[in-house]
Amino acid sequence: MPSQRLTLIAVFAHASPVVQVVLFLLLVLLIAAVGVWVGQLGGRRMARGETILSSVLVAAPLFGLTAAAYGLLNMSIGLANVRPTPDLATVAPGLAEASLCILLGLLAASLAAAFRAHLRFAHRPA
Fold first, then answer.
1. What are the extents of the domains in the chain?
2. Which of 45, 62, 63, 113 is most buried by its number of CB atoms within 10 A?
């Protein structure tokens, strides 16, 4: 049924409040990395731009993996307490939640690394 399809918004809504906060934080880090890069390209040389990108590069994957581990642990505990064992359709939202956490963390870090490398190359003395 189309009304029961799993979407990104449904994954976010299904997540526990702790994971929702981390997902929101990862989105903020992703937007911050893009914002710093665009600001630097626009001619405003921010002294802290590379520092912010380096921080996103280090923190984002760790936040994503921590939230994924928390979500998987929470899901595993819930599954252990249910009889009979649920089918894959019941487990899928939890797995999608963990995957989304990892994806956002790696995406934010990848963009931060690419933007930092671009800024270093673009502002290198000739």
1. 7-122
2. 63
